[in-house]
C-alpha cells in the first residue's frame, strides 16, 4: 500500500526555478535582487515615519552585504536597503573576458580593477554571490541570536536583469523609496 503524498512532498516536487532560463547569470551585467526572511519574519528592524531603523541583526546584514565586494573582486554594489523582513539590492558583475576585464555595465566610474582573469567561474555567478551573502549573514545573525542552524532567509530569492539605464534609475528610486512605502509594500504582512 503506497501512502498518499503529503503537502510537503507536493510543494517540494512542484518547486520551480525563479531564474530566467535564457539568461547566463555569470555574464557581466546589472542585477536587482530581493531576498526575503524565512516566513517573512520581521528580523532586521522597524520602520517609523517612512524611515528604516536597523536593529543589530539588520546592521549585520548590511555589513555582510558590503563585504561582498571584498570577497568577490568582480562585483560592485549599488543601491540597497535592509527592510524589516526583506532586502533589496542592485549589483553589477564585471566583464571577466581578458579584453574587457573589470568593465562594469551601467556602473558608476570605478576604474579598472586589477585581478587575475577568471572566465565563467561558478563562484562568480549571481546565484553564488547571493548564496555566499545569505550564508555569511545567516551565520552572523544566528551567532548573535544564539540560534545555530535556524533559518534566516527563504529558500530562494527574486532577481531581475536590469536591461538599460532607465530601468536602473527606476529600480534605484524604488529601493530609495521602499521604507517610505512600507505601509503599501507587498512584503509588509500588515498590508495583506
Give the secondary structure arrangement, pairings included.
Elements: H1 7-13, E1 29-36, E2 45-48, E3 51-54, H2 56-71, E4 75-82, E5 86-93, H3 126-145, E6 158-162, H4 165-177
Helix pairs in contact: 2-3
Provide structural commentary:
The structure is a single chain. This protein starts with 6 loop residues before the first helix and ends in a 15-residue tail after the last helix. It has a single domain (22-109, 118-181), classed as Alpha-Beta Plaits (2-Layer Sandwich), CATH 3.30.70. Mean pLDDT is 79; it is low at 1-20 and 106-120. By secondary structure, the chain is α+β, with helices and mostly antiparallel strands. The chain has a 4-stranded antiparallel beta sheet, sandwiched between helices. A two-stranded antiparallel ribbon has the order 2-3. Strand 4 (75-82) and strand 5 (86-93) form a beta hairpin. It has 4 helices and 6 strands, in the order αβββαββαβα.
In short:
This protein has helices spanning 7-13, 56-71, 126-145, 165-177, and strands at 29-36, 45-48, 51-54, 75-82, 86-93, 158-162.
Major sheet details:
4 strands, antiparallel
- By CATH, the topology is Alpha-Beta Plaits
Number of domains: 1
Radius of gyration: 18 Å
Amino acid at each position: 500500500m503506497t501512502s498518499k503524498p503529503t503537502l510537503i512532498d507536493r510543494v517540494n516536487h512542484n518547486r520551480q526555478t525563479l531564474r530566467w532560463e535564457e539568461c547566463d547569470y555569470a555574464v557581466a551585467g546589472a542585477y536587482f535582487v530581493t531576498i526575503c526572511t524565512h516566513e517573512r519574519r520581521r528580523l532586521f528592524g522597524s520602520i517609523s515615519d517612512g524611515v528604516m531603523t536597523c536593529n543589530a541583526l539588520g546592521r549585520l546584514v548590511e555589513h555582510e552585504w558590503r563585504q561582498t565586494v571584498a570577497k568577490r573582486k568582480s562585483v560592485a554594489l549599488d543601491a540597497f536597503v535592509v527592510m524589516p523582513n526583506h532586502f533589496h539590492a542592485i549589483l553589477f558583475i564585471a566583464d571577466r573576458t581578458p579584453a574587457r576585464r573589470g568593465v562594469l555595465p551601467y556602473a558608476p566610474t570605478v576604474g579598472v580593477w586589477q585581478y587575475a582573469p577568471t572566465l565563467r567561474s561558478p563562484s562568480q555567478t549571481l546565484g553564488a554571490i547571493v548564496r555566499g551573502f545569505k550564508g555569511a549573514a545567516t551565520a552572523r545573525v544566528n551567532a548573535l541570536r544564539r540560534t545555530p542552524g535556524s533559518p534566516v532567509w527563504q529558500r530562494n530569492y527574486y532577481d531581475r536583469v536590469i536591461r538599460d539605464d532607465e530601468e536602473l534609475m527606476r529600480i534605484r528610486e524604488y529601493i530609495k523609496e521602499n521604507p517610505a512605502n512600507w505601509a503599501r509594500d507587498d512584503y509588509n504582512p500588515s498590508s495583506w
